Amino acid sequence: GTILVYTFPILFMAVLGCVYHHFGKISSDKNMESKKHRLAIWKRPLIIKSLGIVSRIELAFLVMFISLLVWSFLTYLHVSFATITPQSAAKAGEKVWESKLESAALRLGLVGNICLAFLFFPVTRGSSVLPLFGLTSEGSVKYHIWLGNIVMTLFTAHGVCYIIYWAATHQLSEMLKWDKTGVSNVAGEVALLCGLVMWVTTIPRIRRKMFELFFYTHYLYILFMLFFLLHVGISYSCVMLPGFYLFLVDRFLRFLQSRRRVRLVSARILPCETLELNFSKTPGSSFTPTSIMFVNVPSISKLQWHPFTITSNSNLEPQKLSVIIKGEGSWSKKLYQILSSPSSIDRLDVSIEGPYGPVSTNFLRHDTLVMVSGGSGITPFISIIRELIFMSETLKCKTPKILLICAFKDSSDLTMLDLLLPISGTPSELSKLELQIEAYVTREKQPTTQNQKHIRTVWFKPNPSDAPITPILGQNSWLWLSAIISSSFIIFLLFMGILTRYYIYPIDHNTNQIYSYSSRTVLNVLLICISIAITATAAFLWNKKQNAMETTQIQNIEGTTPVASPNSCFYNADRELESFPEQSLVQSTNVHYGERPDLKRSLFELKESSVGVLVCGPKKMRHEVAGICSSGLSDNLHFESISFSW
Question: What is the pTM of this model?
């Protein structure tokens, strides 16, 4: 009953969210504009040293959430301390401060459990709950970080206070206690140890310099959750169970999708140690601009999954999906070396998870879009520009003016501008956009003409075992997800009822003093996993069969010669403009050497009534743009948060 009361409302909201997203009952653009106008001042960015760039809404919710935790903790203490008197402490053989310390330690754990209830929502990539609040999993990672820090602070304080209490009362042997029908201290200590290891590797300096260490140690979340459940028992963990349940559903679906190899058609190799991977996909696979996809290359690492921003457009390129990979880390550098070597391979095994992205986007609400990028931060803007090309070319919509301000270290990085157009792009498509590109090369004083390398395209041989990228749950994925969540929970309740009535009750007779808490917890966790596995696998296999029928209708994309020009419009500066199919793109571009963009001047010169400002790049650049937009010196600048991966 306790599990049902705490879990059902959240799962019911997730199911309703799935139905809502499926039918697309989104308010009209007029209402959206009205709401955004009212919330404009609350969406203005703030720069806080320990939090980064946050909106006033985010800061307000953070303050309210911390207030909730503080209020809960103080209320717990007020109620519990009222029962602690010198007489009650003496009866337990303790001093008053020792009894209060033990009570405070317990309440720290209870408050930590409240935080843990929210911890897994931001990392549920296919969540139906996050989009209800206009959030994406990639954009909500910062909330996961905030919650993780609070959770580990509270749980560490919980553990330390108990150790001090046991030491003061000469009960250190309690640290080795695993009570059959009570709290298991050993399990709690193991869970805390796993959490501390994960917490240490999240320190920004360690995460940046030793990302693989951070990545692999985060798999300790499995042990952390298992021993946490063994520590408190299944009934007391019901507060955090809904979020973790939805995460398990999402994680198992991702596991099923990752078992398949996808069809990699080609790779464009840029001289700036950047790759564009082009995959085959079914026309029914649609995604929104700024979506991301996780990529795994087993020949490099079977465990590492890296997120990359999708640069293609599902409307312009119905049978192709592209991602850009910049050779920054060890994994991406290995991939670049493999594909750029003279004896390049003709086949590469690749698995994917996703795509994941916002349910909808609305770039037409602004008169002008300013996109500020540094280095490979240009990747999400490629997908946005291609979406605007589709809107202006096919839907005949009036699109906003676009000002792309991009900063690169070297002139070889200018070749990334070639990716603004799809391989099949034509000048007419781009000429209908009011696009102006201001490119800055910061480390070179003038164009370089020595040791130039051209863009090269590598085509891969098709393999019968590879399949185009398809939606894991088909065209009606939201309805299938709602069916999985609801049916798996019903099956779990049935299994749990049968287990309790015919196995546990004859032993325990509802006394909760005979049957082991740990055994009960393990059995319930096992039933949850079995219920999710049964329903998710059934839905996956059904849609796999339907997708196979669609896949057979798609011919293998063969290309003996690249469609795109092998040279770069920008890097090979001495060529005549008329020789390029991307003539319109070149004419829209101004390249500045040896200087950095004056962002304040560029933004304040814009006089349109509504200017959307998007930024992707180094932390310093993001903070500078956010600071300009939040300064209040220009009311027409609207800072838009964009998440990207490369």
Answer: 0.87
